[in-house]
Amino acid sequence: MTTPASAKTTPPTGAVVPALKEPPPTEYDGCFGCGDQASDGIRLKHTGLDGKVAETAFTVVEAHQGAPGLAHGGILAAALDEALGSVAWMLGKRYVTGRLETDFLTPVPVGSTVQLRAWCTGVDGRKAYLEGEGHVDGKLAVRAAALFIEVPEEHFEERP
Ligand SMILES: CCCCCCCCCCCCCCCC(=O)SCCNC(=O)CCNC(=O)[C@H](O)C(C)(C)COP(=O)(O)OP(=O)(O)OC[C@H]1O[C@@H](n2cnc3c(N)ncnc32)[C@H](O)[C@@H]1OP(=O)(O)O
User: Fold this and answer.
1) How far, in Å, from the CA of 137 to the mean position of ligand 1?
2) With a threshold of 0.90, does the pTM exceed it?
3) What is the ipTM of this complex?
């Protein structure tokens, strides 16, 4: 698969690629990427999962504009981050994004539906390596490679 992975997002020799488990049963409703209660969120839901690759879709609306009529790159990166993050969580541990590398290959007009796919390229200790891509009308529009880091449950404790 074509990816933009740098040395920091390329798994070392010997990293394993685990099969994905079922998505976590409790998702956080307030999550910008997947939460049902996040009123300004993008509410991604899995549309496919085959044990290795997870799929979802995201429709760009006016509130996501950067330039007139075109998606803001940060929104596309957020959607990729969420897709990759959901795969990381399906490895069965808690991960957060440490590094996210993104290529924006074509402008994405408002009204487009971005078909997103994400997968794991390897796990090495606390590090999980993820890649993903988004197609619009069959054309590769965005792609990403990321390093996720496993964290303890305390990472998500509410801050004062
Ligand atoms: C309650 C139920 C909820 C259920 C819910 C389910 C939802 C299921 C879907 C979730 C989907 C989420 C999708 C969104 C995902 C986010 O958006 S997460 C939010 C954005 N990310 C963050 O906020 C992370 C902020 N950063 C941090 O907290 C800390 O920097 C980190 C990443 C935990 C690392 O800190 P640390 O634990 O002290 O680890 P550290 O020793 O610094 O690094 C460990 C190793 O990783 C390397 N490393 C760390 N950072 C980097 C980096 N940026 N670049 C390269 N290498 C790095 C280090 O060099 C080190 O390597 P080695 O020396 O071991 O070889």
Assistant:
1) 33
2) yes
3) 0.91
